[in-house]
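Data card: per-record layout.
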Amino acid sequence: MHALRDTVTKAPSPTDLAARFRSRDAAIGIIGLGYVGLPLVRAMAEAGFSVIGFDIDQSKIDMLLRGETYIRHLPARHFGEMIERGRFLPTTDFSKVRDVDAVIICVPTPLTAHREPDLHFITGTAKAIAPHLRAGQLIVLESTTYPGTSREVLKPLLEESGLACGKDIFLAFSPEREDPGNSAFSMASVPKVVGGDGAQALELAIALYDQVVGKTVPVSSPEVAEAVKITENIFRAVNIAMVNELKQIFACMGVDIWEVIEAAKTKPFGFMPFYPGPGLGGHCIPIDPFYLTWKAREYEMPTRFIELAGEINASMPGVIVNRVVEELSRRFSRSLTGSRVLLLGLAYKKNVEDIRESPSLRIIELLEDRGAAVEFHDPYVPNIPSTRQYRHLAGRKSVALTPEILRTFDAAIIVTDHEDVDYGLLVDHANLVVDTRNAVERLAKRRSPNVCKA
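The structure for this 454-residue chain is written out next.
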């Protein structure tokens, strides 16, 4: 075990740098301590590297230094122990980039209001670190983006330091494959795709990631590696759109899409199960396909299939709200206007606190636009933080899930199927349950006349 070095006095050759990675006698800098960067800190430190973690959010740094964490499935004690042993230093001081052998960039890549790539986190990071780079460093971009970003956008900004990629510093792309809250797959167990800007950069990236993951998958270029992640997320987006459309078609025929999928997935070949829902959430699947549609316009190539999938998935919050309207009218002769509606789950997926791009926020907005009074319950999200698109919802607090409170609502919508919610209590005391995740039947193992699927 070795503590963080104060400085690096001599730039290693590519051969020496690769050897340093293989012996794990290297310092790794990770920029962006969010849902991708913080798990990577843990994996790198546990593999034996010393790590400097960089973030522009001082509150995150302060929490880590106090021995606290802001990501629920990553226990605070791990980072506290790393800090105490001198293996992890969280900081906002980007000048410390000169003290590391590899810089891994894990910053967000959102969309603009016009659904075009917003690369300002990548470009801002490049400009922040360029003055502090030194010869003999590997720089890896992990942020999901369109093919060409590493060499067309990041590389020129890094070379403003006066250092040449492929000669003084080395550039690679390796897409993150995090699945927050999924305990079945740790970072170390998921193969890591790597593409380098030249043979030496690729060799260095392989040497680094070989120490952390069970398998590295080298590809011929950063563009191929960038395309891999885009393809993975488009694959999911398109298939989810398909089952969302099938759900609506089959519902008109009186056929339960969930039962169809359960039976279909017994086929041992030629079928892969995807599940419908209230819309896409998270920082990847609702966003990444549009990075490719934007880039494709440069080549005058249509992306009709991808865009259609995006339209279907984006329409699902409206479909859910319409189902609530229908059920209130059919069962109680009530209008949505003046009704009280409870949302179960604000996070974009179960068992996490992440609300990025969550369809719940859009559903709240649509319900309130039509005159409903809306509250939510989420054991992982005690209150709604400020978001770029839904600032007007910030500060609202999760209500308790009790029989008395449930009976005050005209309808409850299961948007996120957290496993530690008492669905039996919900069914026993709610007037109407609109289940978008098949949670009642799948988790509570019961059916009830006050439950409908949507």
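Known properties of this structure: The CA atoms of residues 2 and 50 lie 7 Å apart. The longest strand covers residues 27-31.

See the next section for split statistics.
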